[in-house]
Design brief:
The chain is mainly alpha-helical. The chain is about 60% helix and about 5% strand. The chain has 13 helices and three strands; from the N terminus they run ααααααααααβααββα. A hairpin with a 2-residue loop joins β2 (about 280-285) and β3. It starts with a helix and ends with a helix. The chain binds adenosine-5'-triphosphate and magnesium ion (MG).
Amino acid sequence: MPINERLFDRISQKRDILNSLRPFDMGALRRLKASFDVEFTYNSNAIEGNTLSLSETRMVLEDGITAGGKTLNEHLEATNHRSAIEFVESLVGKREITEMDVLNLHAMILDRIDPHNAGFYRRHRVRISGTNFTPPKPSLIPDMIQKLYEMLNATGGEPIQRAAMIHMEFVNIHPFIDGNGRCARLLMNLYLMRSGLVPVIIQNRDRKRYIDHIVASQTRGDHMPFINFVARCLDRSLTIYIDSLGEEDEDHITLAEASKKCRYSQEYLSLLARKGRIDAVKFGRIWTISGKVLEDYVRERDGGN
Ligand SMILES: Nc1ncnc2c1ncn2[C@@H]1O[C@H](COP(=O)(O)OP(=O)(O)OP(=O)(O)O)[C@@H](O)[C@H]1O
Ligand SMILES: [Mg+2]
């Protein structure tokens, strides 16, 4: 089992809690989806180099207002990504995911941005700047990508690991001239959702870590750091879903506030949070923790004394 045991148990518990909240309150679900889609779109596009901020992305997607000084393509990337999310959602209940589904997904990502390449595998060699990794030559893509379609339709096994490996396989083949990262992140979410889980957001602030894990997989063949990274993203998503769809609002407090309620310093709590030893969630730049999680942790550490 490559996933950190503590993290894996926490994810399983949260999945059970989330499932116990079904059927979800439709109004709460709609509000959650609106903000989740904005956050996903902002982060996925920012990783790729789009300069729209989170609030500009929200403005473009929710109010249809253009952001001053930003290019037409940056706006199209935002609206295209939202359409791509909706398309992925329409595939969740489909019996089999086909090559045409993936080509259509890519066509949506580059719609009106690069019509010549949207929905077509690349016809040229590519190099990934800043790394030694060279994806396969174009003539190898049609064969290599078959494995990806098999992975997308495979059932059984551990879904988080499988979803992460779909992402990894996809970016290694790098089937398109551009938009591979965005497509990979959407397909990973498609697999998670088809497995009854929730989508993840790879945050732009984690861009370096994200790329480092991909490179480590490529150079050392060690996929575990990337799989655990995806698992941590899933843990965060589950918390967001439970907080939004649960009946009572969780009382999230900052680690600075938490340190006043126990004998641990803010720095120590922050270390525990980064290491995944306590169930803290990062909102913006700030780590937060629910009062109950803190209480449970302190009780466990202090052995009831
Ligand atoms: N060695 C590597 N170094 C950096 N990125 C890599 C590497 N191998 C694969 N990748 C993947 O390639 C993606 C970039 O590919 P591409 O530019 O086609 O996608 P994009 O959607 O336009 O951009 P991005 O993925 O940056 O959002 C990265 O996000 C990452 O997922
Ligand atoms: Mg790109």
